[in-house]
Design a protein that fits this description.
Blueprint (H helix, E strand, L loop, with lengths): L1 H20 L11 H4 L2 E11 L2 E12 L2 E9 L4 E13 L3 E12 L2 E6 L2 E6 L4 E13 L4 E12 L7 E2 L2 E2 L4 E11 L1
Antiparallel strand pairs: 1-2, 1-12, 2-3, 3-4, 4-5, 5-8, 6-7, 8-9, 9-12, 10-11
Length: 184
């Protein structure tokens, strides 16, 4: 709230100074490809991602650096859903990096013991999880998108002991994924 007030006062002061000096206001810069196409659809593939092994998501850029994202996917035996927010820093019209945070709901990998053998399986019930990731995204002039992302998924139930490829991860599940899609 304080940032909004300070920002608004700065804009008003800048506009007032421009009027006092009698200078013309400069025309706005043309929109970049990130700003003209605000909605995108992506197909995801990954290991232990919030959308499972495969999924689809939709993104909407509320403002150029801020996106809202919702998606649905599967881990092969059940469905997963996720909703979150992304912040991106663009480098020209074709490259961006950023981070995401959100909530997911689905089955997470955990340690299952059967006799003398320990194996990896998914939780019996879907559980809510929080996630955070970083990503690198590229966009073509035609609107084709590719995103590489990696992060951690944290089940919001403390009694779940998670594993990744047989290694206990103290509740956190690291993930990596790739998404391909188009901006509309």
């Amino acid at each position: 709230m304080a940032f909004a007030i300070v920002g608004a006062l700065s804009l008003l002061a800048g506009a007032a100074r421009g009027q006092e000096k009698g200078t013309d206001i400069e025309p706005m810069a043309p929109e970049t490809a990130w700003e003209t196409r605000r909605f995108s659809l992506l197909a995801h593939l990954g290991l232990f991602t919030p959308l499972g092994l495969a999924g689809a998501s939709g993104n909407y850029a509320v403002a150029p650096p801020w996106l809202l994202e919702v998606g649905i996917g599967t881990n092969g035996s059940s469905f997963a859903t996720a909703a979150g927010s992304r912040v991106r820093l663009t480098f020209g019209d074709y490259l961006a990096t950023g981070m995401a945070v959100g909530l997911a709901y689905g089955h997470v990998p955990q340690s299952c013991s059967g006799g003398f053998e320990a194996r990896e399986c998914y939780t019996r019930e879907a559980v809510p999880s929080a996630y955070a990731d970083v990503y690198l995204e590229a966009r073509s002039t035609q609107g084709f998108l590719s995103r590489l992302y990696a992060g951690v998924l944290d089940p919001l139930r403390p009694n779940i002991e998670t594993t990744l490829l047989g290694i206990r991860t103290a509740g956190l599940v690291p993930y990596i994924g790739v998404a391909l899609g188009t901006a509309l």
